[in-house]
Amino acid sequence: MNLFRSTIGRKFLMAVTGLILIGFVIGHLVGNLQVFAGPDALNGYSHFLQSLGPTLWVARIGLLVAVAIHIWAATVLTLENHAAREVAYNVKHTIRATLASRTMRWSGYIVLAFILYHLAHFTLGIAQSNTFKGAFPEYTMGQDYLAMGFLTVKAGTPVADVHSMVILGFQNVIVSIFYMIAVGLLSVHLLHGADSMFQTFGWRSSRWSGALRKVCIAFAALYFLGNLAIPGAVLLGKLQPRADAAVTASTHR
Question: Residues 150-199: pLDDT tens digits?
Fold first, then answer.
């Protein structure tokens, strides 16, 4: 219980849950980038995840708990920081604080709003009628899908056409722009969060703090560019949905 009651404990909880969430966003991006490998890859990957059944729900609940603890710890620490100083600074000087660290709290809340919308848009299919899962015909796998080297989805298996759903969703310019902005803020959040995580765990020293910062910057930049590539390719016409999926979606708008 000291983890929840003490300031150091709450910082440790933030670091641990942050590490879990960093692992998730990396895996999420790697999975989403399969959209460039064609319908069999992304649709097979999606079907593989759905076939996990209870295991998938355990992972989802675990992620939700990690998000809740992360937000709670961040909010409590922020309130404690404000309460510790009864009189505000007349002038704020930020000598070493970076833009990422100064906007950490606000970028976190904006990212939370983005996550809720993202779930409604692509997972629940309620944000836009043309991305509702029931509006798409089933896709028949053209080839076997391998997950971690094991055969998980056989050719000829009917699966949901997630590939077309993602592309049709990002054909909406407003949705794509919002997604790019939110992912940019998430990347900034990850930049400072990853750097702070090493500090909390006591893994950062003056000897290699500069190199660590460069690694965190490179990680955040690659994450942003990886996410940017998907809506960017859709808007440029490099990714196209199946013709029958586009027609079916248009009749459900």
Answer: 778 999 999 989 899 889 889 999 989 988 988 998 898 888 888 888 88
Which letter, b or e, does each residue of 66-98 get, where b requires 16 or more Cβ atoms within 10 Å of its Cβ?
bbebbeebbeebeeeeeeeeeeeeeeeeeeeee
pLDDT in tens, 116-155: 776 766 666 665 544 444 455 689 999 999 887 777 899 9
- CA distance linking residue 237 with residue 232, whole number of Å: 9
Residues 6 or more apart whose Cβ sits within 8 Å of residue 43? 139, 141, 145, 159, 160, 161, 162, 163
pLDDT tens figures, 26-61:
999 999 999 999 999 999 999 998 888 899 889 989
pTM as predicted = 0.80
Buried b (16+ CB within 10 A) or exposed e, 106-123: ebbebbeebeeebeebbe
What kind of fold does domain 2-250 have according to CATH? 3 helical TM bundles of succinate and fumarate reductases (1.20.1300)
CA distances in angstroms from 16 to 29, 39, 99, listed in the order given? 20, 35, 23
**Pairing outcome for strands 139-140 and 145-147:** unpaired
